[in-house]
Amino acid sequence: MKPNRIPIALHQAVMSCLREKLRQAGDYFNTTFPEPQLNYQLRGTSAGTAWPDKWEIRLNPVLLLANRDDFIDEVIPHELAHLLVFHRFGRVAPHGREWRWMMANVLHTEPRRTHGFDLATVRVNTYRYQCACQRHELTVRRHNRIVRGESLYRCRQCGDVLRFAGDEDAENVIE
To answer: Are residues 71 and 149 in contact, defined by beta-carbon separation less than 8 angstroms?
Structure first.
């Protein structure tokens, strides 16, 4: 797979936001935090992930390129908050009260758990599933877990177990 190149100006904008949020946290806690390592190799539908043990933030280059300013304003503070929460509180719930507090009070950013970016460019194969109230699109990974009998998924609204509804565009091949 060919890696997506991040233009230098976009990388600088990411770093500018990261440094500003680190400064805010440093001012709040009266300390300095090291810059996390940035990695632009995250794939799939996640915009970013934080790796506290490595003090690293992994970003999805496709979503970054497609959503520049919104991505920087939302994802960078979100992932940095995970690192800071780990540093301050240790292992806690990923989007629990400590994370929400860090986002709102320290980084002055709305604590949103998920992004609203268009995923058409990153979602390649999906499989149609149905519950009692709506249709769901599951990733290849989740579909394969169901096929192998390793998992079953429920709708967050109605609680019904998701049932395969078929998809003529997708191949039923376990990768």
So the answer is: no
Residues 102 and 84: beta-carbon distance below 8 Å: yes
What is the pTM (predicted TM-score) of this model?
A: 0.72
**Annotated catalytic residue: which of 79, 98, 110, 168?**
79
User: How far apart are the C-alpha atoms of 175 and 167, rounded to whole Å?
Assistant: 17
What 131-140 contacts at long range (C-beta under 8 Å, 24+ apart), as own/partner pairs, is: 131/155, 131/157, 131/158, 131/160, 131/161, 131/162, 131/163, 132/158, 132/160, 133/157, 133/158, 133/160, 134/158, 135/165, 136/162, 138/162, 139/44, 139/45, 140/170, 140/175
Residues 6 or more apart in contact with residue 76 via CB below 8 angstroms: 14, 17, 18, 21, 48, 57
- Give the C-alpha separation, 60 to 65, whole Å: 9
- Residue 49 CB partners (closer than 8 Å, separation 6+): 42, 57, 58, 79
Is 79 tagged catalytic? yes
Sheet bearing 135-139, strands edge to edge: 135-139, 126-130, 163-164
pLDDT in tens, 68-87: 999 999 999 999 999 999 99
